[in-house]
């Protein structure tokens, strides 16, 4: 499942890059476009859809109690892995495009204001007090005589720059930390036995967290509705951009997902469980993730544009998800 979710992100961003070149998307909207195409709502939607399908009397996934247990586990794992990828994959990409648009906007403002001074031209011409680089030919030989110590220092400097670009404080968002803690509890058997199970001494923690989690699902849905309300406002998003996101998320990605899951099943990379295959397929047909709106709010750019894209993609998702879920259930039955 982690590999499958990573493929949804990579393929979505690749398709977004192709459509950016075709539609000539403005630079300030490219980051939002890539984010909406690459990151799907792997959180609350699978947690709502999969258990609801298991409760159906004619469900192809077997007994409802067993199906609900496994379905909730698959949906929760999907949410945890998706949260990690959003903040480690999508966030840096949107950060790069946000910084580019900010630099371009500041450059345009500076040029349009006409604020020029002699100091800018003087810095381009070497003076007698400040010789040019041509006066020091020995500098051209420095890369060839670099020692191992200087190489190590440069590598450390590169890692520091990379860490600054990634902004680890944002990467380790609360959802990412929660996913890591969940993985640790699930993998470490002693911790799991203390917290999970009817005979666990600290089962009250597990029960409390479960109650909060069940209440969080409708709360997240309400927050999503509030975010979509901003899509009714005017913005600079063109019709082609919205159609492009809809085409990537609801046409190209689901079709490619069928090919990937079927090929993986043919080569024995995934088991024969119809429920597991259904969850893998569902991950390709979901609308954009809610965290994309959160990221735009962090950068304070393109918030209204993101709301417009979210509004129309979720309107279309009401119909496309129904069709794809019906087809997936027939496909894996």
Automatic annotation (TrEMBL):
Lineage: superkingdom: Eukaryota
Biological process according to GO: auxin-activated signaling pathway; endoplasmic reticulum to cytosol auxin transport
Primary site of residence: endoplasmic reticulum
Record keywords, A-Z: Auxin signaling pathway, Endoplasmic reticulum, Membrane, Transmembrane, Transmembrane helix, Transport
Keyword Zinc belongs to the record: no
Membrane-spanning intervals of the chain: 6-23, 32-53, 73-91, 171-191, 211-230, 237-261, 307-331
Membrane topology: Multi-pass membrane protein
Matching InterPro entries: Mem_transp_PIN-like, PILS1/3/4/5/7
A Pfam cross-reference name: Mem_trans
Cellular compartments annotated: Endoplasmic reticulum membrane
Keyword Transmembrane helix in annotation: yes
Record-level GO cellular component terms: endoplasmic reticulum membrane
PANTHER family the UniProt entry points to: PROTEIN PIN-LIKES 1-LIKE, PTHR31651
Function: Involved in cellular auxin homeostasis by regulating auxin metabolism. Regulates intracellular auxin accumulation at the endoplasmic reticulum and thus auxin availability for nuclear auxin signaling.
Similarity annotation: Belongs to the auxin efflux carrier (TC 2.A.69.2) family.
Protein name, entry field: Protein PIN-LIKES 3-like
Annotated organism of origin: Dipteronia sinensis
Phylogenetic lineage: Eukaryota, Viridiplantae, Streptophyta, Embryophyta, Tracheophyta
